[in-house]
Amino acid sequence: MSAIATGLSTLDRLDRLAQQDTAIHRLDPRAKVLTTLVFIVCVVSFGKYDVIQLLPFVVYPVVLAAGGRVPLGFVARILLVVSPFALFVGVFNPFLDRQVVAEIGGLQISGGWVSYASIILRFLLTAGVALVLTATTSFIGICLALEKLRVPDVLVTQLLLLFRYIFVLGDEAQRLGQARRLRSFGHRGMGLRPYGLMLGQLLLRSFARAQRVYEAMLCRGFDGRIRMARTLHFGRADLLFTLGWTALFVAFRLVDVPLLLGRLTTGMGQ
To answer: Quick one: which H or E segment has residue 103?
Structure first.
């Protein structure tokens, strides 16, 4: 299966997971979006040398995935595919920051390695929670929540159109790839030049299709805003979910939970 087909299959599975009926899925999308935003803000606010302090935040995506029946293995595979980006971002940290900040069993660890580990862990937490949010809310539900939270209409509309037509664009790219393979014999047509031509052709076809779609939308009364018929109700369960998790995230941010647990365990042992 090509990379494009794999990506479209992943998006389709996320959308199908979001159609389940669980307590997490029944929560108001605004509650999950707001809670996830607080989670991300707390995670990224830690210092560059904080690694152990981030570990308690693993609780939220794991609980959300378990309650929403989202396979953790599926989420882990997606994170593994996109992890090279995070690995590349901090790859030079160990060479730029050589100051020793920790020592484990006689092994000196520089600040560069600690900050590198912090970057990777933050990426896994933020990307993982975004995937779980999509799998328990749906992309359409997230956009509806953003609209109700007064996010600018132009941004919400762009996100909705992107999700709607990314499958169309992916199918077009697959057809171009299949046509190239059918016309390739041996190693002919397998170099970089055909890919450049294919990319240009795909761009031109995308512009042409976008123009036709836009004209069709104008004929049907489109005024720059996509209106969704689904209504939302923010109830008591949604409020408790948001306040409870928010309080826990703030506690994780203000209190060094691993250090506190270590002291308690040591005290009990004595």
So the answer is: strand 100-104
Paired tokens of 122: 């933050």
Backbone angles phi, psi at 184, to 5 degrees: -105, 135
AA letter at 58: V
Residue 107 phi/psi, 5-degree rounding, is -95, 120
What residue numbers bound the domain in which 102 lies? 3-167+246-269
Quick check: is 175 in a domain? no
114-143 pLDDT tens trace: 888 889 999 999 999 999 999 999 888 888
Residue range 137-193, pLDDT digits in tens: 988 888 888 888 888 888 888 888 888 888 777 777 777 777 777 776 656 656 667
Strand 107-110 with 100-104, pairing: antiparallel
The number of helices, as runs of H, and strands, as runs of E, in the chain is: 12, 2
| CA separation for the pair 134, 137 (Å, rounded) | 5
Q: Does 178 map to a domain?
A: no
Q: Which two tokens stand for residue 70?
A: 């989202």
Total domains in the chain come to 1
| pTM of the full structure | 0.82
User: From its phi and psi, is residue 224 left (phi > 0), alpha (psi between -120 and 50) or beta?
Assistant: left
| AA identity, residue 258 | P
Q: What angle do CA 232, 233, 235 make, to 5 degrees?
A: 150
What is the structure's pLDDT at 91?
80
Could you tell me the two tokens for 145?
Answer: 């929540």
